[in-house]
Structures are given as C-alpha cells and as structure tokens.
Specification:
The chain is of the alpha/beta class and 614 residues long. The strands form 3 sheets. It has a 6-stranded mixed sheet, sandwiched between helices. Strands 2-1-4-5 form a 4-stranded antiparallel sheet, with helices on one face. A two-stranded antiparallel ribbon has the order 7-8.
Length: 614
C-alpha cells in the first residue's frame, strides 16, 4: 500500500494531544464485524420492514427467472412455425401475456421492496442520530473538550448519511443478487449443462478479481472517513475564529493546513474510488466474455442439432441475469466498504465511556437556598501527571460575595467547573448546604447555579426565548424587569419586533449588548448561587458601572463567585481568594489584602501602575 504524500503528524492543526491520539488510533485497521453486529442490533426493532424488503426482493428475483424460460418457449414456437408454416399464434399470445404479467407483478413487488428498505434505513439512521444526541449529554465534558466539533458534526451528518444510503438499497440488492446468482445458475444447469458450465466458468474470473480489489481498497475507505472528519474539524475551527485568522494574517498557514488535509483526503478518495471503480469494467468484461462463450459454443451446438435456437436466446438472457448480480455485488461492496468505515466511526463514539449512573442520587435540591459552600481538600488535574488544583480547602459563608483572582493558569475557572460538577474530583469533596455534591445528580447541582461567562452564547431564536432559556413559566414582566436591571431593556425595545425579534448569526449586536443579554438571562434564572466569569469584560466603563449596580442587587441574599482579572470590579467582595499554582495564596477583603502587601497587592499595584502609565 503506497505511503501517503503527507504525513498527518506534519500537518499543523489546532488540536490537543488527546485529539491527535484519537485520530491516529482511528487510522488503525478496524474489525468491522462488531460494527455490523451493532447495526443488526439496532435493526431488530425494524425487523418487519427488513423482512418485508427481503421477501419482496426474493419474489422479484423468482419472477424474473421465469422470464427467460418463457422467452425460450416463444422463440421455439416461432422457429417451429417458420419452418412448418403453421404458427401457433394463440400459444404465442398466451405466453406473451404471461411474461408481461410476470414483469408487471415484479415491478410492483420491487416498488414495495424499495418502500420497505427506504423506511427501514431512514428510521434506523434517525435512531442513531437520536442516540448520538443523547450520548453527547452523557459523556464527560473532558471527552467533549478533547474532540473537534467538526469531527463530531461529520459523524452525525456525513457518516450517518453514508450508512443510510448503503442500507437503503445495498442490503436488499445484495440479497437479491445472491438469489439471482443462485437461481440463474440452477436454471442454466437444468436448461443445458454444457452451456451452463461455459457461462459459469467465465464468471469465476470476476470473483477472483473482485476479491483482490476489495482487500486493497478497504484501507482507503477507512482513511477517507477519517480525513473527511478532520477536514470538517479544521474548517469549523477556522470559520469560528475567522476574525482572529484575519487579524493575525494566518490565512496562509490555515490554507497550508487545509491543503495538506485536503490532499490526504483527495488521495484516499481517489484511490478508494479508482480501485472500487475497476470492478464495473471487470464485471462488464466477464459479462461480454459470457456472451461470446454462449454465442460461439451455442452456434456450434445448434449447427450439430444438439440444442435449439430458443435455448441460445434464453441463455443470452440468463448470462445477463447471471453477471448482473456480480455487478451489483461489486457496487454493493463499494457501498458497504464506505458504510463499514462510517459505521465504525459512529459506534466508536457511541462506545465512549459515559458518566456514572446517578439514578440513586439526590435529584431535587429545591428550597435549599444559598447555604454554606465547603471545599474540603480538593485536588484535580486534567491529566493524571499534571495537577491544576492541589489540596484546596476553603469555606464560603452563606449569602457572601466571593471573588477569585490570580494569574492565568492558577486554576480559577477550573475551581468553578469543579463546583458545578462539570468535572469530577480526583480527591476531596465539595459540600453545598452540608450536602456533598457527589451525592447529588449533576442536573440538581446545575439548578443551584446561574452563570455569566466571558464568552457569550445566544442561539437562533427570539430575544424572549434566549432570555428565558432553561426556565419554564417565565412571565413577560419578569423578563422585562431583569432586562431593566441589566440595562438592556431600551435596546431590546428599539429592535424591529422588540422581545419577539429573531436573533441570528447575522444580528447586528455588539459584544457588550450580547453580554448584557446573558446577564439578564442569569437574573431571570434566579438561582441561589451565582457564578460570574469576567462577566463585564466586554462592556465599556460606563456600562460596567450600570451592570455592577445590577449585579449588586442580584447578589443580595445569594452566594456568588466572581472570577475577575480587572480587580477594580471586585473591591466590594466579602472575601477575595487569591489563587496561585492551584492553591490559595491569600484570602481576605480588599483592604486587608492591600495592607498585607502580599501577592494580591502586587497584582493591584501592577494594574494601578499600568493604568497610571496610560
């Protein structure tokens, strides 16, 4: 097998080491038997549709096999009538009507078979998409973070569509091909043994060639699916960060990466299609070879009076029917090869380890209120050899405003992610209101918090739907009240349809306005705990003051955690946790930490001096 022109390890990609490992693992040869077993398992619920399709395919083949024999009888009657001058017209008409009825019924059965298999494949792939959607909600966040969104999208769209096309026609066609092949062989053998041996013998060459081609082409079908997912991932990343790519003149580097992956995809696609495309010419050659064998040897037999002209006509049709299954098998094999690679990628994702079952844990924390939060010797690392949080212990009093500050990489956001159980602790525990969060379901923990992140997220929908996201039964007055507090009400009212305005990717909203929308969403959620991760980083100074006042009202009676780099925004915090290298460096109020003259004072003076210099 030829070596790829580009080494995937040399293609520069924005991907983590874990993703690179996953990709290399995906290129290894797979045992597709387990994938097809999974397809069969998913097909059990649709067995009636599959059975109906297969039965219709069998009936269609059986009816088709009666056609050549009827043609033989018609041809022999016409030949005998031409010789004797006494044509049996009634018999010829009766046979002609019979063959038309046979082919008509066969067409109706073929239609029924097509409907059954199309419905089966559509239902099956619908189920798979539903399973992937559910799987995304059951896998750990760490697994989702290590995957390319484009690659996941490719599995949901391209790979499932590929499997859909293969199951739609290929399964029934392969069954029909096998039956046609066996039926034609039987009919030829009982019609004329010598002509049958000539015809079948010439077809054995096609089998040998086809088997060899399948073995060579299969690895390229695997690579094609892998490279297509990788290309989708690169495109998704580059378009998502299009402004950054432009700003840093990264177009050329991005283009080189794209060209490298595209070249790999081209080579894998070209080789797979070229090799599988050789099957059709080979099958055509085998078919023509069969025609030549029947015509030459049949003519010799007719000249010797050892067979009739009708038998030759029937055999010409039988040879066509006999080699047609080989062509269908060749086409079906190509489709099944592609589907095998696609199904392996689908089930590879569905086999991913899921989060633990939480059916026996606390699912309702309603009325819990903003209780005490305790970090008890918490340790965590994204990888076993690199700890981000080390033996962290701290108690947050009820209804207090806690600010978390520190240099980049100190573990501020990680600490909040652990608090919300986005990740599981390596050791230690986190208590909320005296309850261990590991004893609660993740959904119950999430219900206790509302979040405002630095990266805003608004989906395609109305302003009202975006604001009330995740909460049912929200009134218009509650929405407007929150928007007034966040300082976004006037802007929303100025939109063409106000709160019913549909937001899209092309909506002309500034980063600050989008941030204010997410702040209003958090106010509407009205959870007992609040997390702010650089929530005011995208707004101007004047708007920041307005938002800060709204936040002060929002945090009343709630325990709030604020991650901040601009220290001026957390001066009024009840307690400031200064983190450094995954542990607590200092704690205290703003005035206390300044008087202590420690690391916080260094951070404060650094920002102050930079501001003064400006």
């Amino acid at each position: 097998m030829a070596k790829d022109r580009y080494d995937l390890g040399q293609v520069q990609m924005k991907t983590s080491a874990g993703r690179r490992g996953d990709m290399k693992a995906a290129e290894k040869p797979k045992d597709f038997k387990s994938s097809w077993k999974m397809v069969l398992r998913y097909s059990r619920r649709y067995f009636p549709l599959v059975a109906a399709g297969v039965i219709c395919a069998v009936l269609s083949v059986v009816l088709t096999l009666f056609g050549p024999d009827t043609l033989r009888q018609i041809t022999d009657l016409i030949t005998a009538g031409m010789k004797s001058g006494n044509m049996d017209k009634e018999r010829i008409v009766a046979l002609s009507v019979r063959i038309m009825i046979i082919y008509g019924i066969g067409a109706l059965i073929t239609y029924a078979e097509s409907w059954s298999m199309t419905t089966y494949s559509a239902r099956l792939t619908q189920t798979m998409r539903r399973e992937i959607s559910r799987k995304l909600n059951r896998i750990p966040l760490s697994r989702a973070d290590s995957s390319s969104f484009g690659d996941l999208l490719s599995r949901v769209t391209n790979d499932i569509d590929t499997l859909n096309v293969a199951l739609d026609r290929t399964v029934a066609e392969m069954v029909a091909a096998v039956i046609t092949f066996a039926g034609c062989a039987f009919m030829m053998l009982i019609t004329d043994l010598r002509l049958a041996l000539w015809s079948i013998g010439s077809s054995l060459l096609g089998f040998a060639a086809m088997r060899r081609i399948i073995r060579i082409s299969q690895p390229y079908f695997i690579k094609r699916s892998v490279y297509l997912g990788r290309l989708n991932g690169h495109i998704e990343e580059m378009y998502a960060g299009h402004i950054i790519v432009k700003a840093y003149n990264g177009e050329e580097e991005s283009k080189k990466t794209f060209d490298g992956i595209n070249e790999l995809l081209y080579e894998a696609n070209w080789k797979s299609q070229f090799l599988s495309g050789m099957m059709m010419p080979i099958m055509e050659f085998v078919s023509n070879l069969g025609y030549v064998a029947v015509c030459v040897f049949g003519a010799w037999m007719v000249s010797r009076g050892e067979t009739s002209f009708g038998v030759i006509v029937a055999f010409i049709v039988y040879v066509k029917l006999f080699t047609q299954p080989l062509t269908q098998v060749a086409e079906g094999t190509t489709s099944l090869q592609t589907a095998a690679a696609a199904s392996e990628r689908i089930f590879q994702f569905l086999r991913e380890e899921e989060m633990e079952d939480e059916s026996g844990k606390i699912a309702d924390c309603g009325g819990m209120g903003a209780g005490e939060v305790v970090f008890d010797h918490v340790s965590f690392g994204y990888t076993p050899d690199k700890k981000v949080i080390r033996d962290f212990s701290f108690t947050v009093p009820p209804a207090s405003h806690v600010a978390i500050v520190g240099p980049t990489g100190a573990g501020k956001t990680t600490l909040v992610n652990l608090l919300m159980r986005f990740y599981e602790l390596d050791s230690g525990r986190i208590l909320i209101g005296g309850r261990d969060t590991s004893a609660m379901t993740r959904e119950a923990v999430h219900d206790l918090f509302c979040m405002v992140l630095q990266d805003t997220w608004l989906f395609n929908g109305s302003v009202r739907d975006n604001l009330a996201f995740g909460k049912k039964g929200v009134t218009d007055e509650e929405i407007k009240k929150a928007c007034r507090a966040a300082g976004i009400h006037r802007f929303i009212e100025s939109l063409p349809q106000g709160y019913d305005t549909l937001l899209t990717d092309d909506s002309n909203m500034s980063a600050g306005q989008r941030q204010l929308m997410t702040i209003a969403r958090a106010m509407i959620a009205d959870a007992p705990f609040l997390i702010l991760d650089e929530a005011t980083s995208s707004v101007d100074t004047r708007t920041e003051q307005q938002v800060q006042e709204a936040m002060n009202r929002l945090t009343e009676g709630r325990t709030s955690f604020t991650i901040a780099h601009r220290l001026s925004t957390i001066r009024d915090a009840d307690v400031i946790i200064v983190m450094r290298d995954g542990d607590i460096a200092e704690t205290g109020s703003h005035e206390e930490l300044l008087k202590a003259g420690g690391f916080y004072a260094e951070l404060w003076n650094s920002q102050f001096n930079e501001g003064a210099a400006i």
